[in-house]
Amino acid sequence: MFTLPDSWVWDFWFADDGEQHHLFFLYASRALHEPDARHYRASIGHAVSEDLVTWTRVEDALVRSDVGGWDDLATWTGSVVRHPDGTWFLFYTGSTLTPEGNVQRIGYATSSDLMTWHKAPENPVLAADGRWYETLADGQWHDEAFRDPWVFADPGGDGWHMLITARGRTGPADDRGVVGHAWSPDLRTWEQRPPVTEPGQGFGQLEVTQVEEVDGIPVLLFSCLASDMSAARKVGTTGGVWAAPAVSLLGPYDVAAAQQLTDSSLYSGRLVRDHAGQWVLLAFHHDAPDGSFVGSVSDPMPVRWADGRLVVDRARARTGKD
């Protein structure tokens, strides 16, 4: 488990350099006292591990910019990929407060070694396009949701794709969650495209999306709590990490058929392959038994397919104590 004694840790993502797993994570000081305040104080920390269990913290990756910057409130969730020329790209969410509310946009930083990162001067590279995506001006949500970029190479070699936590333009406010989409030929320039899912699937937002082929079967992973679900979908659940069937990495994704992998004790789950080649899930500890916020990253939990659905074996989580 990865935990910090003086800070909450929540959303995270990985990179693998062939020798070590790199964990990039959001964190904020517990001196804030109120866990919800962490969102407006988030920085991106960094730790490394050989086994996804024992972690060594290293120098932070990114912090927010000075006042007036596009990411001057906080730096939020992202993903890391490597360009064919060897350059590492860390895509992340930049948050800023406007008179109308919180606006989220997407930019990136680059590194030659995964340790020292430099923000791109052309940031931000993407913001919500009102032709397809809800904005603050629509007055339907508490912020302009356009965040959590998940970037992956096109399976056929046609550039790069980005999946985005976003909201559509139609439907009830609690049922507008969509998976946004953008495409790039080179990771530096991005073309925004319509969402790859439709509103009306039961979720107000699909956070921290990820697509992978687990044992040859494609799956879309995302997270959503009951407080951000439609009235019908939230009945009988606290929410948590969800898995939706996918025809391929590029979709279509059947969000309406999504099934829970975890309850709200775990959130923002990430699938990753360990160095033995086994797929595991890590998530951050969200709700304690008494309902309080925890804020630490779990140990890796094996996943498998059973009767056509992805299953997490929490009882067999690796702790490094065997």
Automatic annotation (TrEMBL):
Native organism: Promicromonospora soli
CDD domains found in the cross-reference section: GH32-like
This protein's record includes keyword Hydrolase: yes
Protein name: Glycosyl hydrolase family 32 N-terminal domain-containing protein
Database matches in InterPro entries: Fructan_Metab_Enzymes, Glyco_hydro_32, Glyco_hydro_32_N, Glyco_hydro_beta-prop_sf
SUPFAM superfamilies the record matches: Arabinanase/levansucrase/invertase (SSF75005)
Span of domain Glycosyl hydrolase family 32 N-terminal: 19-228
Gene3D superfamilies: Glycosyl hydrolase domain, family 43
One term of GO molecular function: hydrolase activity, hydrolyzing O-glycosyl compounds
Family: Belongs to the glycosyl hydrolase 32 family.
UniProtKB keywords: Glycosidase, Hydrolase
GO terms for biological process, alphabetical: carbohydrate metabolic process
